[in-house]
Amino acid sequence: MLKTNDVFYSLDTLVNSGTTEWLDLHYDLTDFTMGSFFQLVFKVEGENSTNIEGWFIDNIHVYQLCDEPTDLSLEPQFGQEYSIAKLDWSPPATPYHWLFYHDNSFENAVSAMEPTYGFAQLFEPEDYPASIQKVRFFVDGHLNHQNFIDVSLLSGDGNSVLAGPIAVQAVDENSWITVDFGEISIEDGNFLVYIENNQENGPFIAVDDHQENPKLYYGTLLEISPNSPQWGYRFISSCEAYVKHSPSDHVVQKIQRH
């Protein structure tokens, strides 16, 4: 089994009907683990499971497959005492990935107690230009989790709206909400994911309070300020951004001498 975001997914089932020979099994975890922490879990249940003399689980490898480079070209170069093969290629397209700062566990939750106020998490892309396609966040089950909220993308200084607001509503308590913005590109700087309450007392957004300097902001749209100096909170929200960074224009070169 695979565990991610406190949800278990069954990858395979082996029936306890006698001795099992050595098996070589492979599983694609991409759809479950992209941009998330995860655990591999081996669960035993059923009749006679407690009588198994031994589990021999060995050689567990978890690895990432990378896209291959494209536009390969070879340029031979010759000199008086040597020959050189110059190989150029273009880097593969950079996929989207989830960008977040929490540790995948949420010990607390915060909410604006009055309408038109909300919280914003600051995001710092690793490279530019960057494209933001969607965001998601975890809604705690405390109080009015089914109230409507507006979700927006803001510039890093909070002075302009990049996309939104989009009104969303939590359907189930203790669940993720995903908001699709299409594709918003930025050439430099940071951005904020802003979640504003339409009604009082909820919903509550889950937060990770085990780390320092979360850069969580609070206020009304286009009038937000860092949350930590105001109340001493040092939370990291459950907000995540689905981000893609454009590949660099640099050409990789490999020189071989004979």
Give a concise summary.
The protein has about 260 residues and is mainly β.
Characterization of this structure:
Strands 6, 7, 9, 12, 14, 17 and 18 form a seven-stranded antiparallel β-sheet that branches. A six-stranded antiparallel β-sheet has the order 11-10-13-8-15-16. It has a three-stranded antiparallel β-sheet with strand order 2-1-3, with no helix packed on it. It is built from two helices and 19 strands. It is mainly beta.
Cα-to-Cα separation, first versus last residue: 51 Å
Number of distinct helices: 2
Instruction: Detail the poorly predicted runs.
Output: 248-258
Return Rg in Å.
24 Å
Mean pLDDT: 77
Helix-strand category: mainly beta
Content of β-strand: 35-45%
**Overall morphology:** flat
Task: Indicate the percent of residues in helices.
Answer: under 10%
The biggest beta sheet is recorded as: 7 strands, antiparallel
How would you spell out the order of helices and strands? EEHEEEEEEEEEEEEEEHEEE
Per DSSP E runs of 2 or more residues, the count of β-strands stands at 19
Write the layout of secondary structure elements.
Elements: E1 2-4, E2 7-9, H1 30-33, E3 39-40, E4 70-78, E5 83-90, E6 97-99, E7 108-110, E8 118-123, E9 130-140, E10 148-155, E11 161-169, E12 175-186, E13 191-197, E14 204-208, E15 216-220, E16 223-226, H2 227-231, E17 236-237, E18 240-245, E19 252-257
Antiparallel strand pairs: 1-2, 1-3, 4-5, 5-19, 6-18, 7-14, 8-13, 8-15, 9-12, 9-14, 9-18, 10-11, 10-13, 14-17, 15-16
Keywords:
mainly beta, 258 residues, 19 strands, 6-stranded antiparallel sheet
